Structures
1.
Amino acid sequence: MPPVIGVDFGTTNSVVAILQPDGRVETARFAVGQAEIDVFRSVLCFWAADRGGLRHAAGPLAIDAYLEDPLASRLIMSMKSYLAQRSFGETRIFGRSFTLDALIALLLGDLFGESGPALVGARLVAGRPVRFAGDAPDDMLAEERLRAAYARAGWPEIRFALEPEAAGTRFASTLQGAATVLVGDFGGGTSDFSVLRFEPGERQRVTPLGHSGIGIAGDSFDYRIIDRVVSPLLGKNDNYTIMGKPLPIPPAWYTGFARWHRLSLMRAPKILRDIAEVARTADHPERLHHLIGLIEEEAGYSLYRAVSGVKAALSRAPGATLEFRHEGFVVEAAIDRADFEAWIAPDLARLGQAVDQALAEAGLPVEQVDRVFLTGGTSLVPAVRRLFEDRFGAAKLAGGGEFVSVAEGLALIGKSIN
C-alpha cells in the first residue's frame, strides 16, 4: 500500500500525520528552538530581499522572522478564515499580488518540506470543516480554493474528509463495541459537529448520520476579550466632534482590530489617515494614537499571544490577569472567569444550536448518543465542556489529542481509500 498522510490545515495550527506500514499513525515533528512539537503554526512572514526580491518563511520560522523585525516584515495569519469569502480576491505584499490559494500553497509547501517523511507516491487526505468561517460563507468556493492550493503545492489529486469525521475515526479506534458518537471539533475559526455510527470489525464501518458547523471557535473567544478589555483603552465607545456635533468613533475599526485575520488590512494608508483625522477632535485622542501605533508597528501578534494566554489561564483558574505593554500603551486587567463566560454567552448559545442541528439532521434524541468526543483547544474551556455535560451527562464525555486527532483520523481514513 502506498504511504498515506493526513493533513489538517487549520486557522491557527496545521498538523501532518503519517500512516505507518504497521498501522500506527505518527505525527510529523517540527523544530521550535531546542524542542520538537507536532503542530506547525499556520502563518507566513514576508520581507524584502536584495535587488527588489521577496523572501518568506512559514510556521515557527515565520514567527521568528517577524519578531526579529516586525516593521520591515508582513505577517499573514488565519488564511483559512478567508477561504469562503468571495470578496477576498488577492492581496498585495511589498508590491506583489498574491491570491489566497497562492499564499496557502506557500505554507503547505513549507509544511510538507519540514515534515520529514518521504511522501513520493503517497495518498493525501485533507481535512475541511463542515461549514467554513465567515459571514455567508461560500463553501464550494472555499473547497475549490483549498484544492487549488494543494495542487500548487504539488498535490493535484487529494481527497477531502470532514474534520469532525476524521476526529471521530481516530476516537473510534479506542472503542470496544458499536456506538453512536457525537464529535465536536473546535478549531481556531470554526466549530464542527458530526453524529457518527461506528461498527467494529476487521473493516471498521463508519456511517455519518448528521453534521453541522458554525464559524465560532477559539478566535471568537479571543475577540470577546479584546473587545471588552483592550478596545475601550484604544477609543472604542468614545466620541469625536464634527461641526460641534458629537459622533461615535467608528466601531468597524475595533471589529477589524480585534480579529486576527483582519488586522493586517488596517495598515492601509486611508484607514490610518482616517483614524488620525478623528483623533484630532476625539474625547481621548491619545487612545486613538495608541491604536495607530499598534497597527503601524505590527504589535498585534504580541497582543494576540497575550490574549490567547489569558484565555488558556482562565480554563485552569477562576481568574487571570491580562498583561500587555507596547511603548506607552499598557494593559493590566484582572479578568474573572465568570465575566469571560458572560462575554462568550452568545457564542455558547450558537454552539448549542449547532449541536442541536447535528442531532436533528441525524434524527436522534440526546439519549441515543452513546459517547461524546471533544477535540481542539477550545474544548478545554470549562463553559464549553459544561455545554455538553448539561446535554449528555459528564460520564459520556471524552477528549484527547486536542491538536492532532483530526490529522491522525485523516490518515486512518486514507487507509481505506481504493
2.
Amino acid sequence: MSSPPNPAAEEHYYAGIDFFGAGKFAEAVAEYQRALELDPRFADALHGLAQAYHAQQDFDRTIETAHRILALDAEDVLAWTTISRAYQRKGMVPEAEAAGNKARVLGWKIQLREQNKLAKPPG
C-alpha cells in the first residue's frame, strides 16, 4: 500500500487535471511533472502524465511513463492498457496486442483475488 501523496504534489496533480480537462495538454504535462518532482512515486500523477502525452500524440513518452508506473506496480492494469493504446497508435499491432493481453490477464487475476476474498469464511 502506498503512502498518501505530498500535499504540494497533490495541488500540482489537480492543476494538471484541470488543464487536461480544458484541453491544455502542455500545461497539464508541466503540472504533472511538478507533482512528480515533489513525489516521484505519485502513481496518479504518472497516470495523468501518460494520458497527457497520449493526448499530445507523444506515444513514446506515453509508453515510457507507463513503464515508470509499472516499476512501482507491475500489476497496474491501466498502465498496460495505456501501453497497448500507444502501441496501437504507433501501428505496432503485435506489441499492442501483447500489452493488451497482459492487462486483460492481470484484470482477471485481480478479479479472482477479490472473488476469493469474498468466498472465504470469516475466522
3.
Amino acid sequence: MTANKTAMTTQKVAARFRALAQQEKWFEIQDEFFADHVRSMDPENSPYFGYAEGKSTVRKKGEDLVKRIEVAHRLYTTEPIVSGNHFTVGRETDITVQGLGRIQINQIMLYEVKDGQIVLEQFFY
C-alpha cells in the first residue's frame, strides 16, 4: 500500500466483504483483502477444516473444500456487525461434500482487519 493511499476502514472492508459474500465470491474476497500473513482458524478438533497460515495456504484450504462440494443446498451470509477492527457475519452452509456426505454448518465468522487488510479469520461452529 502506498503512503498516499489510506487504508480502507473496517466498516468499508465489511461492506465490500458482504457484497462479495452475497455473490459467493470467496476467492475474490481473499484476493482483495487477505494479508500475506493471514491466519485461518477453525474450532479445535473440527471434523471438517483446520488451521492455515499465509495467503496461499489459506487459499488452498478453501480450494480443497470447493473441489469436493457435490451439491450446494443452501448458502447464506448475514449482514456484518462491526466493532473496532473486527467484524462478524453469520453463515449458514448446507452442502454435500465428497467423502463427508451432507453437512450443515451454522457458524459465526470473525474477521480482524489491520490497515485495510484481513489478518485473521476465525470460525465458531
4.
Amino acid sequence: MSLRSNIRTIIFNAIWLSIFVVSLPWLAWRFFSKGKNRRGWKQKLLGHCPIAEPSSENRIWLHAVSVGEVHLLETLIDHLRQKHGDVELFISTTTETGYDRAVSLFSKQHEVFFFPFDFSWAIRSVIQRLKPDLLVLAELELWPNLIHLAAEAKVPVVVANGRLSENSHRNYQRFGILTRPMFSKLHHVGVQDQVYARRFVDLGCDKEKVTVTGNLKYDSIETNRDNSKTRMCRTVAEDFGIDREGPILVAGSTQIEDETAVVEAWLSVRSSFPNLKLIIIPRHPDRIGEIESLLSKHSLEANRRSQHGSKAIESDILIVDVIGELSGWWGLADIAFVGGSMGSRGGQNMIEPAAYGLPVCFGPNTANFKTTVDGLLSEDAAVVVRDSNELAEFVSGALVDQGNSIAIGKRAQEFVLKHRGAADRTVAILDEILLRVDDWRLDRAA
C-alpha cells in the first residue's frame, strides 16, 4: 500500500471513529429504549462475516442498505441466477429491517450478514473472509475505505441501479479532494438515467465505465392485483371492516406532513363519500404513536395492522405498522397517495402504485425521484397535489369521474411497462466482468 493510501485510510478511520464516538449516546438510547441496533456488532465493528468455503464458483458480494434496496437485489439475483446458476452469493445490509427482509428472502440459499462500518480493519476482514470476485453496491452506498480497499485487493466494484440526488452530488463535490479518488476506482456504474450518469462522471468516474441501464424497480414491480400479497392484505382489511363495498384511499411511505394532509383531505371528502376508507402505511412503523396522536386531534381512532387477530374497533381507518407489505396494500387501493412528498424527504417510490394502474398523486417535494416524476407527469399519468385541499380535490375527482381515473391509471401502468429491462442490462455488465474472473484471480495472486 502506498504512503498516500495509508494516509487516506488513517484519515477516514479517524473521521468514522469521531462520528461513532459522537453518536454513542444516540445509539445507546436506541439500544435501551427502543431495542434497536442490538444485533450484529461483531460484523459491524470487526467484519466477522461468514467465512466462504474454498470453491471454484464465481463469488459475488452484494450490498443493499435497507428493505427497498433488498427488493432490488431480489430482482437482480433472480436474473443473475438464470444465467449463472452456479454463482455463490453473499448479501449484506445496513439496517435491521433490511437484514430481516434479506434473511427471509435469501438465507436458504445464500449467506446474509450485517454490513461493516467503514473502518479499514472491518472492511479488510470481510474481503479476506469472503474472497469475492466481484462487489455489487445497490443504488448509492459508497464508502471510501470500502472502495479503496476493494481496489487494492483487485476486487472490481460495480454500482447497480445507481442514483445521485442533487444534494448528494453537491456534498460529494464539496469534499472532492477526499471523494474523487473513490469515484475514479469504481469499475463500472449502471445508472438509472442520463442525469445521474452526468453526475457520476462529474464526480470522477470514467465516462466509459458509466452505463444507463434504467431503473431496476420497474423490473421488480407487480402489475397484477390478483397476487398473493394483495390477497392476504384483502383478507386482513376485511377482518378490520375495510372491505370492497367502499372505495379505499391508500397513503403509503408517509411521514407526519403527509399524514396531516391525508387525514384532513379524507375528512373533507367523507362529507360527500361517507364510505371512503383510509389505509395509512408509514415509512417507519415505529411512528404509530405520532399518527394516533394526529388522529385523536380530529377525534378519530384507527386499527393497527399488527393487532390483526385481536378484537378490532369500528373504524374506517387502518394503520399498517408492519414491514414488507406495502406493495400488497397498493394492490388493494382505488386511489393512491405516495408519501415523503409533503415534507423535506424528497419523495418515495411511486412506481408500485403506478404499475397497478391506479390514479396516483404525490406532494410537490419529489427530488429523489425527479426522472420518474417528470416521466409520469409528461404522460399525464400522475398528479402533483400541494396541500390537503388539492389532495381532497384529486380524491373527489377520482371518485366522481371514474372514467378519467381509469385512463390516468392505464397511462401510469403503460409508463412502467415500457421502462422494464434494467435487470437484463445490469446482468450484461456483470457478465463482462465474470468472463474475466480468472484474470482477476491471477492478478490478486500476483
